[in-house]
Specification:
Largest sheet: 8 strands, mixed
Radius of gyration: 28 Å
CATH superfamily of the largest domain: Bira Bifunctional Protein, Domain 2
Number of domains: 2
Number of helices: 16
Low-confidence stretches: none
Structural class: alpha+beta
CATH topology of the largest domain: BirA Bifunctional Protein, domain 2
Distance between the termini: 45 Å
Mean pLDDT: 92
Helix content: 40-55%
Strand content: 15-25%
CATH class of the largest domain: Alpha Beta
Number of strands: 16
Shape: elongated
Amino acid sequence: MSTALKVQKLAGFRDFFARDVKVREFVTNTFKRVFEKYGYEPLETPALENSNIYVGELGDEAEKLFYRFKDQGGRDVMLKYDVMTSMCRAVAENINNIPFPYKRYQIQPVWRSEKPQKGRYREFTQCDADTVGSDSIICDAEFIQMGIEALTELGFKDFRANINNRKLIQAVVSYSGAKDEQFIPICISVDKLPKIGREAVKKELMEKRKIESDVADRILDLVTITGETTAMLDQFEKKLKDIPMGVEAINELRTIFNYLKSVNLDKKYYQFAPFIARGLAYYTGPVWEFEVIEGGVGSVAGCGRYDNIIGKFVGRETPATGGSFGIDRIVEVIKSRNMLQLESMSAKVLVTVFEEGLFDRSLEAAVYLRKNNIKTFLYPSIKEKLDKQMKYANKKGIPYVVIVGPVESEKNIFKLKDMKTGEQRELSLEELLNSVK
């Protein structure tokens, strides 16, 4: 052909070849295994949803990122923006068939018309787990335990869950003298404390949020308290004892920390972090994030209780709690640090074809190995020289090569070459199998 079609993927979308797919499968399978251990069950929802479940629910900034269009039937539809809203719709449609509390996990792609940049894609995977229909703080505590277990199984060693309560922040805002309508803007600023520090947050509170200097100081004096968890909670209790929401928040936090102590979790994996606010408006109670400390990776999951969202869909008050893990970010960290040792992507054994007359002997070896669950690549061409087949095995990282030439055929054996050491052995089929297992 004299010309070729110019091909290029859309900006913000990605192709995943073997290594990427294997790492992603390891991450998602780990989450699935841990989620199911805690009684969560899988849910999948369609890629396309009616736009009305998203429009007016997520705010103007989110709506600018919708992949929204009219389909051929004239219906107003859009690609799924997040899995939580889609889950709410599914629960609402099946409200009479779902026993509550309902524990579900969902690992699916979502689409947002972001400006492509490092770490931001227009198609990415969300990994959510939620408990719907229970107001028990034990659900929040159990999720934190589950997240710590999942990150440990993924191979992370230096990480922690930073735990707080939105009711505590709201009580702090009341204590400080700030106005109720300033609560969400204050949350957004306070949540930046670990990244930009106290002075920068105070400047933002004063200049951008129009908070008076003494009010900003009262807020920051409280949310920057440090020390041992019980002592910190005691300090908050003294300051907020006359604010019912503050007392409620402290009791909920004590429930969480008592639970984590009861299940003997290492204290290095969690801490009370009164500066964690989670800027999203729908959080109503405990909030937490999982932070990978080593290498300054930062947050890999955002979580919290949201008791007022699902009720809008189901027509009755429905408490819920859960969180979302950043699959793409976790995958990139695991790849960049070589945390996962993968065997050959395509096969463990390449069976060569010496010549056309010996193809049946090569086929015999391949069939036998495959029957015994060994990933085996049978070289498809009978015209390629043996040297080229060996080079192919090297390029693909296939650790073992089987050779059946005239000598081996006459002796009714198979030659096995270890591509790493160069060692070659003459073996029967059974010996060959035992050697590559």
